Amino acid sequence: MNDIMSFEFNAFENYVTDSNECVRFKLVTCIDDLIEDFDDTKVLGHKQDGESKKLVSSSCRIAPFKPDMTYQFFGENENIFGYKDLTVKVYYSCAQLNIYLCLKYADRLTKQQTDGIEPDDVLKIIASKYETKVCYNLNEFSANLSKEQSFMPYGELMEEFEIETKPTDDHQQAQKRHFCLFKANNSVPGFVAYHERMQTFLMWFIEGASYIEIDDDHWDFFVLYEKLPFIGSQSSKPLLKEYQYCFVGYSTVYRYYAYPQNVRPRISQFLILPSFQRIGLGSKLLASIYTNYNNKSIVDITVEDPSDDFQRMRDIYDCKLSIQLNWYKTLAPNTVWSNEMAREAQMKFKLNPKQTRRVFEILKLKLTNRNDPEQYRQYRMGIKQRLNAPYKKQINDIERLRQRKAISETNYTLLMKTNQIPREYRIKNLNKQYEEIESEYLQIIEKLG
Ligand SMILES: CC(C)(COP(=O)(O)OP(=O)(O)OC[C@H]1O[C@@H](n2cnc3c(N)ncnc32)[C@H](O)[C@@H]1OP(=O)(O)O)[C@@H](O)C(=O)NCCC(=O)NCCS
Questions:
Q1: Which long-range contacts (CB under 8 A, 24 or more apart) does 379-387 make?
Q2: CB of 446 sitting under 6 A from ligand 1
Q3: Which residue ranges run through the membrane (predicted)?
């Protein structure tokens, strides 16, 4: 799109599509999930194979979903040029994660119509980012679906559990769903290639995501699946087992070294696909990661650049955990933060001190009566002092350098000039920061009940 700045844009308004809206993901469990796609190929006049004619109508088992972002593929404007009524199909077989890409559109501009400007080569753009094999032929993709039923996840089974999902409308019933979590690493045969397919989801759902190289054996992988009751299809062979695996999401954890002989695991990527979000699976995955690393050699667990949604989920879970700590029993609106609190949470649950401080502030706000002016003022002061501490330290350090005559008067004046922030501006800024923090904390408190 950037190339066509001078272009007579309005003439082709209908040929510019919001890429966040037109990309559609599907986790394909069996050939029945592809019925509408075979119908599309018929409408578009493509050749249709014999098998597809046999298909009976049924809806998709896993609800299709859209990406959260597309700028890594289609640029900052997140749109696609050159097609009318465009749908970009990005399909994955639900267990093996074989990928199928296809475009559906009502019309495509030609170079003659646009003075030589080509429509975006959407499939090429996606495939070039994928760094793994993709398929463009529906028959080829569907032919491989029979292998989905025999798929066994890589690595070792860590846990199996059930989740009872609530009905979302009057016609639905509560449903018991079965999930399992596997742990793998790069020494598991076939897993490196599987990971290449898993990580193709990242750029669509995580801000600033990039791929990781997993030739380093400090990486651990936690992969979550739903065990779907097998319903088969007209074209399926007799079955060996009564369920099939469906990929739900995964997390990578890097085991960093910590002096002298310890480990500091860091959660790097963490993804639950949209069709499975908000039913507690992210919290469950986080809980299993905590359990996995709860041993003597672990200092604490950190998270690399957490998204807002992840931080919300983590705050809720960590608050629930911390309610079991000794310091929580005596927590009151006038309790002040101490490193002892951090140590207890670190020992017991491997929470890192920065996160424990956050949890402390949330739980303390929960106990604070915001209608009591003095109590509320004390609370706000506590937070603002924490926010202001790095600034205060910086200024004190400069003062100390001057006292020790470690810097000249000229350098001192220069340092103060560049580092000192006018009081009025600082207060305004602190108030703003406080308001943002309080609103985040109140959301968590609402969830804690
Ligand atoms: C963040 C993410 C992992 C959460 O997974 P999840 O399975 O939906 O999490 P849970 O169901 O355990 O949610 C627990 C609570 O966290 C909060 N939460 C989670 N996602 C939220 C969202 N999008 N908006 C608001 N609150 C959210 C909710 O309070 C939720 O409880 P509720 O559903 O009862 O309100 C998932 O949304 C995701 O993968 N997002 C895209 C990628 C991403 O941001 N990854 C993290 C990178 S560090």
A1: 379/333, 380/434, 382/336, 382/337, 383/434, 383/437, 383/438, 384/430, 384/434, 386/337, 386/357, 386/361, 387/430, 387/433, 387/434
A2: no
A3: none
